[in-house]
Amino acid sequence: MVSRGLPRDQKSFLESIPRTLGSRLSIQLNLKSNFMSNTEMNTKQGHWILAKMGKKVLRPGGKELTQKLINGLGINTEDTVVEFAPGLGYTAALTLKKSPRSYTGVELNEEAAAILRKKIVGPNKNIIIGNASRSTLQNEYADKVYGEAMLTMNADHRKSEIIKEAHRILKKDGLYGIHELCLMPNEIAKDTKQEIQKELANAIKVNARPLTNNEWSSLLEAEGFTVLEVGNNPMHLLEKKRVLDDEGFFRTLKIVFNIMTHPKARQRIMAMRKVFRKYEEHLGAVMIIAKKNT
Ligand SMILES: C[S@@+](CC[C@H](N)C(=O)[O-])C[C@H]1O[C@@H](n2cnc3c(N)ncnc32)[C@H](O)[C@@H]1O
């Protein structure tokens, strides 16, 4: 029995996979032969572990909030678009379906950028390897700028630098969209906030510093933006229903199989989910669309 020895909740997830799909599952699997060692993986950031397990949607509010972000930005064929931290390019693909005039991604992680450079090719499509706080793009370059699940992992002063950079490269009235982890409610106690930040950092090995809805809005307003729209979703990144919604049935099977066969990764993912569940009432996802004032 494949699920023997696993925690009960994981067992039930796995047991929900029909056995008849076993052969299809093995065909779906395509792990690279140079998969990183377990020791190396243990020190890796949570989102990269998930990515290595086959997870494509790596933002807290899932596909649904991403779709709201894209709709809110109203990307069209006239737009010069910049994405901060495209990661593995999931949202980039949605943006490119809108045929913008140009697309530029600014990604810090060289491995991710190399993958993006293979995926995103063609005229007026560009991937810059670097920090979004210094995009190297000219002033008033873009009509629309957005970034998902990237401000949260930057320290508060760095968040402001990145937002400032979005402001600098946007044209007047240009739109900036963010999709990040948030804390709830707006009046959350300071010590609860610190406790969550500490446990999150420990579990995902990223110095995650989520803010409340009001704090995110204030940060944007302080850098010269007017908030136009705010949307929230639960933080269900590692919950069964969300994984199925985000990844689809067969990719979910693949992810589950990968997690099952990589014990160190499984341990890390279970630890992340434990923290997400422990603080479920305080953790959420937020999407904000803001307009550059001047
Ligand atoms: C959790 S992943 C999210 C990726 C993608 N936005 C998504 O939602 O699927 C975080 C990504 O942000 C990138 N990142 C973090 N800080 C960055 C910065 N200051 N500039 C550019 N990229 C950054 C990381 O390299 C990583 O690819």
Order of helices and strands: HHHHHEHEHEEHEHEHEHHHE
What is the residue-averaged pLDDT? 86
Shape: globular
Helix content: 40-55%
- Structural category: alpha/beta
CATH topology of the domain at 63-187 and 206-234 and 280-292: Rossmann fold
Q: What is Rg? A: 19 Å
The biggest sheet amounts to: 8 strands, mixed
Architecture per CATH nomenclature, i.e. the level-2 architecture of the domain at 63-187 and 206-234 and 280-292: 3-Layer(aba) Sandwich
Bound molecules: S-adenosylmethionine
Architecture overview:
Strands 1, 2, 3, 4, 5, 6, 7 and 8 form an eight-stranded mixed β-sheet that branches. Strand 4, helix 8 and strand 5 (170-183) form a beta-alpha-beta unit. This protein has helices at residues 8-15, 22-28, 38-42, 46-52, 62-73, 90-96, 110-119, 156-169, 190-204, 213-222, 240-247, 249-260, 263-278, and strands at residues 80-84, 102-107, 125-129, 142-148, 170-183, 211-212, 225-234, 283-292. It contains 13 helices and eight strands. The chain is α/β, with parallel strands linked by helices and 294 residues long. The N and C termini lie far apart (63 Å). Helix 9 packs antiparallel against helix 13 and helix 11 crosses helix 12.
